[in-house]
Amino acid sequence: MGANVVRRNLFVLGLATFIAFSPYGHAVAGNLDMQFFGHHVVITRGDDSQDSLKIDDREVLKNYYVDIDEMHVVDGMGVAIGTSSGGGNACEGSPFVVSFPKGQNPRIDGPLDSCFIVTVKPADDRLILSTPATPNQAGQKWEWTVSAGFKEVQGEAFVADTSKGWDQLRERSVTHPGGLLDYAEVAAEINRLAGADKALVNDILLGVGAGEFKGDFFVGTSCSRHMCTDQEAVIVANLASRTVYLAWKPSGQKIKVNPEVKTWPEKAKAELRQWAAKWK
Length: 280
Fold this sequence. Notes:
Blueprint: H1 13-21, E1 25-26, E2 32-36, E3 39-45, E4 51-55, E5 58-63, E6 65-74, E7 77-85, E8 94-100, E9 107-109, E10 119-122, E11 127-130, E12 141-145, E13 149-153, H2 166-169, H3 184-194, H4 198-205, E14 208-214, E15 217-223, E16 232-238, E17 243-249, E18 256-258, H5 266-276
Antiparallel strand pairs: 1-6, 2-3, 3-4, 4-5, 6-7, 7-8, 8-9, 10-11, 11-12, 12-13, 14-15, 15-16, 16-17, 17-18
C-alpha cells in the first residue's frame, strides 16, 4: 500500500507535540500546521486541489499530494522527510528532504525522480534511500548528507530468493503478480513461459495490478505503468499442481498464451476469459 492511501489523516495533539520537539518520530500529514526545529511548517490544500508546503510563510513545494512522513537528526541537524505525488496509482510518492540548519533558512532537496517505493534508512551522518531491484533493472539508491544533499550511488542488483518456492507460496502472502518474481522456483517457470518476451512480461507483472488467492489458485492481473488496456497480463499459479498459466498482450499485438489454452484448468480458463473480454 503506497503513501497515497493513508494521506489526509490529521495529527492528534499529543503526537504533533512529540514530533515538533523531539528529533525522532513518524507522521502522516494531511493538513499540517506546527513548529519543526523552530520553523513554522504548514501543508494546506488549495482551491486547485493541490497541496502546498509552506515554511515560514514561503511556499517551497506544491503537488497533488504533499506529506511529511518522518523526522530525524542527521549529523546534528534536524531533517523532515516527506513525499510528493501527482496523484493516480501508477507511481508512488517521491521523497524529498527538508533540513533545518541553525540560524539559516531551511533547505529543500528533491523530490527524487522515482516511480517506485523508496525506503529510507537513517544513519548518524546520512540518509540512505533506495528502491527495490527488479528483474529488469537494478534498484535506485541515493545518499543524502547535510553538506551535499542527494547523491545517486550504485543500487542493488535483483536476485530472486532461492529460499522461496512453491512451498513458501502456500503461505499466501503475495498480493501482487510482481511478487511471484521473488520466488525463484516460480519466477523460473514464468520466464520459461514468457520466452523471448521475458523482459516485457516482467515489466507488465511489475506494473499496476493486484492479485488474490482463490482456493489453491493465485490469480493476478497487471499492466505496464501508463499503458493499461494496451499492455497487460494475467497469471494463474496453481498451488496444488505447481503449475503456472500465463497470458499477456504486448502493445498493439494480439494476446499470447502459454501453455496452450486447452491445457488450462476450467477455473484458470474462466479468469483468462474475463481478463481478455475487454479486447473483444
